[in-house]
């Protein structure tokens, strides 16, 4: 394990009308480590980039530079049935600002790789919950301007526009993949798209990662609790099936008795910062693993993980080594 990790906190990567957007970068003392971009959860309306599981530890153990990025959170109008923390300093906007910012951070990080000493040739993106949705979307939509006609007037590249925003691997914890299967009238999803699924069908479809899956989509590692009451496990199943149908390698872990953020009861949710500890707790949680490995004509099988370790940091490490390491 590397002896130390260099931390760069509060690095500004974008200036928006509502304020500055920053990232925290954790770089292990190894030569040219690959880059992992972390996107926090919080229902698109809450939390900050500090909501990341032990980044210094995993930067060291995985030998990866990890960047935890801020993105504009959804503006919540007075009277909306969605709670927000008024002390959260993160700038706010309206979807697709969240996606625009994640892509901007990826481009900025790729453009500044030499400045900070990591290798951004291949980039992995990892997200949880709302961040899982944004990570999946960043994986299957290479250029921010390709999200779709429903958002065309709101998609611009002002940050490192000449750099690529494409990613080569995705890790999603309990992220939404198909909004057309979500009923959320009055909740954060209808707030996100400015109306119900029936009122804004194009936005619901084009913001859904499953809509954009192609044979060129990156390999993906999905982890989801079967008892998730906030984002149904069916969301990860739909995305996995779409990748499999397109001939893209994928892995899906289902944790049998776990809810959102790897707790057994929603009342026990604390923070994503302790989520990895819960996921990797002993004894190992009962789980099922599904693997889609596609073999090129005349080739040999190259699975994403050779021996399918339990869900947790070791599985993520091995996936990253296989895809971007």
TrEMBL record:
It holds the Pfam family BD-FAE. GO terms for molecular function: hydrolase activity. Coiled coil: none annotated. InterPro entries: AB_hydrolase_fold, BD-FAE-like_dom, GDXG_lipolytic_enzyme. Keywords: Hydrolase. Gene3D superfamilies: alpha/beta hydrolase (3.40.50.1820). Residues 23-243 form the BD-FAE-like domain. It comes from the Archaea. PANTHER family: AB HYDROLASE SUPERFAMILY PROTEIN C4A8.06C, ALPHA_BETA HYDROLASE. This is Lipase.
